[in-house]
């Protein structure tokens, strides 16, 4: 019987027929990525896959190449919900089908409480309205394509360090108005098929077993019929999570919800059979939605595919280019017009110019089906305008935390990029001695090898992986530095000489989801024209460390990573970049972070750019007054040199089409229209949660309360480097004629319309974003943020001299606050101020108007 037939099943009848054991099996996953099938009743398993900026598929190791979209902060910077919905339908849903996945684990919809948060790049915004509307569009498009959205991490998961244990202590108002609001908006407008619970506690109780969040808010108040799913290894009990309403434990590896423990919990009256069946029914509801949405997945072969590399490339480039934010452009330095500006030589410098930087790290990472570097894309775009432009390059200052991976520097014996891996079983499960003959030999095209659960299942519990390749010959004699880290133990040999010993003793680190060692480095002298053999031996049992003698077996998080680069003195690198800057007619410095700095598993420690990057920018800017800085990061960074350069472009992480999008924007083929989805402070000390962001004895106090992001900067009158919503264009715009309709009241809601005229007062076609902020009555008895984004709209391709009237709708969400004492939303009577402009900066909010609400009212639900 086809698995898709389950779409027609009567769920009540199916649940009635379930045995207790079958119901238990349905409440937890199988392996890492699947739900449980019940063949007797025709219940198929469904497969889920990591997102949220692409569909990786089920493998960290040798994964299927996929389309990588811009980071969520970049997608939110488009302020374009229609584009986001289209991306969900045309790109993400189709990619999920290629990967045989029925549910995408995304979008991530947490709040950028602090840009140091390791996964800040993965969530949309510091503002709950922008985040919620973008998340709703993402979910809506994806689910229109038949693929389930699993919105995450519900909620209060706004940092990475101590993420399994810390307690997010926040007021109920902050929970409702800031941290739950994006999820509430997504539920109202898109109804995600799944909600994934956060790892952390909120106000004392882990979310996966928190009845206030899962039952009182999600089920009762919002009336949601979604399926709730744990984050991976994110439940900590049986009875508490079952009784609180956590439907599905993921993954099925090392799970709590085994037949033995669940039946014992029933027998001891910790849980009831009825509750177990209620949880199982919600899982079956998800399975049925998947069977209806994309039946071809359930009836297919389950094979992961990459698909046509060109399919969707135009929309990916459009999404990336629309996300780019022009922060500064003094003297019309941009766009670059080589012939008009007399640009015969352009220097491209910086640690990110040629590096493969397409996403942050962790579960958002994937293997790109293609990648266009900034250097490649910019050089190509300039060459199309003027083939005679000379492009020079220098790294200038290195930006990596870990040595760059070497898949493009190693070759197998038959000349393929990468190396050969040989898996060896050991004499027995407890032995450290590998057998003489390999169990399996595989081709490996990556030198960051996260095995997760993808190693051959026939291996003994402890196993060895030997990796062999040839380092491409160098063009000159050099010193070459290798870097080796592992989750397990490893050692590096070059021409059979031990170079790095990460086997005997280790230093614990954060790699591979906090299972890895720190990187150990070793230097080898290489002769020009000589190929050297590179051999890494890895075992999945980690070595003892000074602070931790445990030699644990890495049965699900094992991995090894080899990187390397030629040794170059930092002063020489810097001098090279400065010299090129002096000789060039213009400089483009491409600098920023990468997936080592911004990643799941740990938080950043500084907002500064890595190493000597800031020094590089300052020195090339001093050497060439036409210096354009392109910054890449998923969240805020500091720019102490901002006043010293004429032009700054923030590119976020743009995915596969990074270089294409940058080339289009820098040369003016695309007029930039991105707006910052979060504030960029001048210094870390200005961040609202500074001083109470870290977990202290397991507690994280949300002491800034409602004043997150730009609300804090306005409230405290602190000037950030760049305001939330800021972004320039190659043309100019004028807003005028703001008018508000009279509020209308009906069925417990209020509605009114704001209208504003947008005029292109410049000389080229451009796109602009209208941002509407609301201030609550000064007569209110409670404190409110001074300014709150409540609506936005985009005006597309407005010709010079032309105008367009933009209308945006406001409803009860624009005027409501949470009243703790009565557990309801309240709309006060009084005068509300509407401000409209091009960013949240006071000087940018050029228009204002007021409206009155005559009578206070309350509401609940959505």
Quick recap of the structure?
The protein is an alpha/beta fold and 862 residues long. Among the domains are: 313-400 and 569-680, Rossmann fold (3-Layer(aba) Sandwich); 410-445 and 454-555, Galactose-binding domain-like (Jelly Rolls), CATH 2.60.120; 733-859, Immunoglobulins (Immunoglobulin-like, Sandwich), CATH 2.60.40.10. The protein is built from 20 helices and 39 strands.
Task: Explain how this protein is built.
The protein is α/β, with parallel strands linked by helices and 862 residues long. Among the domains are: 313-400 and 569-680, Glycoside hydrolase family 3 C-terminal domain (Rossmann fold); 410-445 and 454-555, Galactose-binding domain-like (Jelly Rolls); 733-859, Immunoglobulins (Immunoglobulin-like, Sandwich), CATH 2.60.40. Helix content is 23%, strand content 26%. The chain is built from 20 helices and 39 strands. The strands form nine sheets. Strands 14, 15, 16, 18, 20, 21 and 23 form a seven-stranded antiparallel sheet that branches. It has a six-stranded mixed sheet with strand order 11-27-26-25-12-13, sandwiched between helices. The chain has a five-stranded parallel sheet with strand order 1-2-5-7-10, with helices on both faces. Strand 25, helix 18 (613-623) and strand 26 form a beta-alpha-beta unit. Helix 5 packs parallel to helix 7 (181-189). The protein is globular and about 85 Å long. The model has no long low-confidence stretch (mean pLDDT 97). This is beta-glucosidase. It is an enzyme of class 3 (hydrolase). One of its GO terms (molecular function) is beta-glucosidase activity. InterPro entries: Cellulose_deg_GH3 (IPR050288), Fn3-like (IPR026891), GH (IPR017853), Glyco_hydro_3_C (IPR002772), Glyco_hydro_3_C_sf (IPR036881), Glyco_hydro_3_N (IPR001764), Glyco_hydro_3_N_sf (IPR036962), Ig-like_fold (IPR013783).
